[in-house]
Amino acid sequence: MANKMSRRQFLGTAAITGAALSGMGNALSAAQAPQGAADWDEKNGPAPAAPDAPQALPLQPGAVPIIDSHIHLFDQTRPVFSGYTGGLFYRQVNKPSTPAAYAALARPAGIVGAIVVESAAQFIDDNLWYLEVCRDNPFMVGVSGNLDPGSTDFTKYLNHFHRDPLFRAIRSSRFYTKDAGGKLALNPTQVANLKLLAEADLALDTANPSMDLMNANVLLADAAPDLRIIMDHLPSFDPTPENQAAYDAVIKEMAARPNIFVKLTEVYHPKPGDNGIIVKNYEFLRERLEYLFQAFGEDRVMFGTDYPNSYGVATIPEEVGLMQQFFSTKTRAQQEKYFWQNSSRIYKWVKRSDDQPTPLAQGKPAPPLPARGGGGGRGGPGGPGGPGAPGGGRP
Q: d(Cα 196, Cα 73) in Å, to the nearest integer?
């Protein structure tokens, strides 16, 4: 998420209305979300745990393992710091977000690994920090970093960070322009660089959902068909009566591109059009999830908590429990795909501990470095992250 912006600022400006895809039955009701005991007005502060909201299932042998494909890490005590300290309520806590702190909260809910997605990183050093803290904690299975595809240094840094097997993606969403007439156009330089990202077998996270970004993702998917494009937090987009038809159309267009994937994340989110109400009514949320699941199918959806941006909006057990309840009507195979298999195919993350499932795909190795004399620089000879990167000594 962007620097110093709460989840509220990323959402639409009106209540959810009806929507349908061709061939699909009843989807979202045109009525506003029902207000129930579990709903919460964020003006009253962080939402307490809702006893009537779905909760994560107790841990038991044979349970579907969960990989969280979207968390954020930061440490405001670092000398070089991007300035991002989480969502509205986590900023009030004013403490770092670290792999160890997150893992302690996530493991009881059945989460066995996570991918960090950059959060308004401003410096190239932020990528190195992500890799270092993730390497030190085997709970972390991947990094979606920050490289600017519009920079003349993109290729240099892509080749540099690709050498670390934990570096699995970048997040970038400004690869298009919009003229005065509202027409979108891709930036040719950025498209060329994003094709290099695809050649490196790395994915592209995009956020946060807007009509322009969703339409730009369609253009990019056609221009770079080998690029795995991820639309983050798609359930958080609240269509208005004015853009409902356009929203339905772009969902259909994105769904028609097999290289566009979606994170069913931020399902719980404040609705600005409803004065910040956090809707926790399951049936209302289920309808939106079913709409998107039917659109994109079982092979192109992923789980994520968006922690700590979700702090004060929903607990981790609530985030997990909501999706476990939704997938309880699906097959075991569909559950496995959503909770870990799809992210392993899309990100090609790295298994780092025995309780993590074996990924279904492995990333393409980086090309070897050209021979040269002297030392390895800041990252050492093993790659940008030091000895834990390919050829390094740390396991």
A: 26
Q: Which residues of the chain have pLDDT under 50?
A: 1-38, 372-395
Q: How far is CA 21 from CA 24, 209, 214, 383, in A?
A: 5, 19, 16, 47
Name the residue among 302, 299, 269, 262 with its Cα closest to residue 115: 302
How confident is the model at residue 60, as a pLDDT?
Answer: 80
What is the pTM for the complete model shown? Answer: 0.83
pLDDT number for residue 366: 75
* Nearest in space to 267 (alpha carbons), one of 322, 207, 330: 322
Q: What is the pLDDT of residues 41-76, one digit of tens each?
A: 555 666 766 666 788 887 788 899 999 999 999 999
Evaluate whether 194 touches 221 at the Cβ level (below 8 Å). no
